[in-house]
C-alpha cells in the first residue's frame, strides 16, 4: 500500500463533535485524504462537503436517531466531542454518550471488520490505572441508563478528569473484544490545544504547562496537530496499533516523569495518580 495507507480513499468516516476544535480539523483532514465524511454535533456544522447530523450526546434517543440517519458503513469513527467541568451532563458528553454511540454502531454492524475507532481523551485521562477498580465498575454497566445511574451514586467523580480516565481505560479494556471483531480502538491524549473549549477555560487549560513550553520554545498545540495524530491512528498505516493511549503533549509528561523537566514532576505525578 505504501503511502496510500495514510489515505482514506473509499472510506466513510464519522466524526462526532466536529463543529469546532479538533473534531472540526479532523473532519477537514479526512476530506483532504479522500474520505466521505459524516459529522455529528449538537452545534451547527460549517464544513462544505460533509453530511451533518444533529446529535446531543446527553440524550440516548438523540444518539439512536443520529445513528439511524447515518447508517453504514462506518469505516472510521472519531469520538471528538467533549465538555469542561461546570457543564451539566459532562459525564454523558465525555463518556456515556460516546460509549453508547460506539457500541450501537458496532452492534448494528455499521462499524465492522477493518474498522477503527479513535477517541479524544486528554492528558487529564493519563492516570486511569490509579482508579482501575472503580472505573471497572462503571465499565461493567451494560448500557446508557445504567451508566447514568452509576454516576448518580458516584456523584463525587462526575468531573472532567474522571470521565477522561474512564475513556482511556475503556479503550484499554474494550480493545480485546473489538479486535476479535476486526475493529481497532485507540485514544489520543492531547495536551493544551488552542480550541474554543480551551479558550473558554483558558486560565486552567491554556496556562497549564506554560513553563515547559516556554523552556522548550513552543506554543500550545494547534488543533490540526492533534487531528493529524488522530487520523493516523484510524488509518491503515496504523494497522498494528490497538489499545494505545497516545499522549500528544510535546513531551511534557515524559519530561516531568523522567526528571528531564523537574518543574513538571509534581503535576505529572498528580495527573497519573501517583502521590509520594
Ligand atoms: N483543547 C484542549 O486543550 C484539550 C486537551 C485535551 C483534551 N481535549 C478534549 O478534546 C476534545 C475536543 O475538544 P476541543 O478542545 O476541540 O473543543 P471544542 O469545544 O472545539 O469541540 C468539542 C465539540 O464537542 C461538541 N459537543 C459538546 N457537547 C456536545 C453534546 N452534548 N452533543 C454533541 N456534541 C457536543 C461541541 O459542539 C464541539 O463541536 C474534547 O473531548 C476535549 O475534552 C481538549
Describe the structure.
The mean pLDDT is 97. Helix 3 runs antiparallel to helix 5 (144-153), helix 3 runs parallel beside helix 6 (160-180) and helix 4 (132-139) crosses helix 6. Strand 4, helix 3 (90-107) and strand 5 form a beta-alpha-beta unit. The longest helix is centred in the middle third of the chain and has 21 residues, at 160-180. Helices cover 44% and strands 13% of the residues. The N and C termini lie far apart (49 Å). The protein has a seven-stranded parallel beta sheet, sandwiched between helices. The chain has a single domain (2-251), classed as NAD(P)-binding Rossmann-like Domain (Rossmann fold, 3-Layer(aba) Sandwich), CATH 3.40.50.720. The protein is α/β, with parallel strands linked by helices. Residues 17, 19-23, 41-43, 55-58, 80-83, 93, 120, 122, 190, 192-193, 195-198, 205, 223 line the site of nicotinamide-adenine-dinucleotide (NAD).
Helix content: 40-55%
CATH class: Alpha Beta
Largest sheet: 7 strands, parallel
CATH architecture: 3-Layer(aba) Sandwich
Q: Specify the CATH homologous superfamily.
A: NAD(P)-binding Rossmann-like Domain
Question: Which structural class is indicated by helix and strand composition?
Answer: alpha/beta
